[in-house]
Structure formats: structure tokens, C-alpha cells
Model the fold of this input.
Amino acid sequence: MLVDVDAAVLSNTRLSNDYSVLALAAADVAALAQPGQFVMIRPSRGSDPLLRRPFSIFEILRDARGEPAGVSLFNKRIGAGTRLIYDVEPGARVGCLGPLGRPFVPVDPPAEAWMVAGGVGLAPFVTLAEALRVRGTSTTLFYGGRRAADLFYVDLFGQMGVRVVLSTEDGSRGHRGCITVPLGDALGAHPADRVLRLYVCGPTPMMHAVARLAASHRRACDVSLEQVMGCGLGGCYSCVVLARDHGRTPHFTRSCIEGPVFDATHVVWEALAH
Done:
């Protein structure tokens, strides 16, 4: 089930010159959303941009009684649509269609969950962390960015009981270099007899590197692909990716329907690199 609403903008928090968090009054969407799902957003009433833009659901907003009241979106200003999202003011209305896509499936104890995020790939992990906390699952977030100023909401994850490991390319916070370095060290040190599942979202090269690490350590790994989407409903075929299921011949599949969450072993990563 999905909902198409004309959602009021509750707030638009500018985190930096490029990043913002948009809060929308979309109770019906929030009530249905699962971790890792997304919405399609129309940021203006006109025809520019013509198509909606996909955004992972960042937070489920709740009212004073704890009931779902809306959703927030983690936005990076990089194109026409995301610039409009960055600039929109409280009280405006935007089209919000969702929730859409295949979600993450949270694991239960005694399994552990490791979330791996790069940049704006942090977006699906607040809802996943909340679902894992409800289950009592031990959770770690590996979160990387170019510099300290590109890392957001670290304290929020700490408040949810998530262990956080940080890295920056310039060494300004956490480990120096890519997040795959401390992740690889942690995988090597993790007892082989303890069940572990990785959840990954971020730049494609990072996700591919994590998928290789997970495979080399025989760990289950789900990735959330950030493909360009025109409709989010499977009709335009703009988001197709090459995948193979259980050893089958590779075939094209729509990431808005069969994804955005995929088993990392099913993705033909070499095809995504081109």
C-alpha cells in the first residue's frame, strides 16, 4: 500500500551549505514506512523539474502520543530538484508519494547488525537503528565522509545505543581514510561463530568494496542502491540494474520495485561501474 499526499513542510533544517533535513506532515506515509523504504518528492507545483525525486525516509516523526505524524528526508543539494528541497520554507507543500521499495529486514539477537554509511548514504539508517533497538539487537554504525563537517547526527545514533565508528578522508575526525579500513579490521577481529549482518548505503564504489569484504569474511550483506528514478513505480525503467538471483543468468531488474535493498551477492557490480 502507498499514499500520495500534498504534505506540509514542518521545518527545513540547513545543516551546512549543501545538506538539509526536511520534515513533512505525512502521517499516513509514516504509519506504513519500513526501514530502508523511500518516497518520491515533487518539490514544486510547476513542471520544473518535471519528475519527482527519490529520497530515503530518514526519520519517522511522532506526535505527543507517540503516533506517526510525518517523515523527514536527508537532502544534499546537487541538482535542480535537491536545490528546491534545500530552499523550501515551512508552510509550503510538496507532493510525497510512498512508502516505496523493498525495505531492510532487521535481524534479531543474538545476531549483530553493522550499518555502513558513506555521505548521504546515512539516510536509511535512523529508521533501521530504531527497529534494531526495539528488537534489542547489538548495532554498530560505520560512518565515513570527506571531512568532519560532512558527518551528521552522530550523537543521535549514540543516544539510540548504537556504537559508532567514524572515518574521514582528511583525518579530521575518526580514522583517516575510507570507512572500509576500520570495517575490514573489525571484520577480521569478529568471532566467526557469531552471526552478523551488514547493511550498506553510500557511493557505489564504497558499497562494492564493502560487498567484497563481506563476501571474503562470509558475512551476509544487504545494500541500498541509489539509482536514478523517474517514477518510483516501475513504469519508466530508468532505475534498472543488472542482478543475478541464486546463480541464475544476470538479468535487468527495477531497483524501485525489487530494491532499493538487494542482497549484495546478487548485484553485478561491474555493470554499475559503467
User: Anything to note?
Assistant: The mean pLDDT is 93. The chain has two domains: 3-100, 112-272. The radius of gyration is 18 Å.
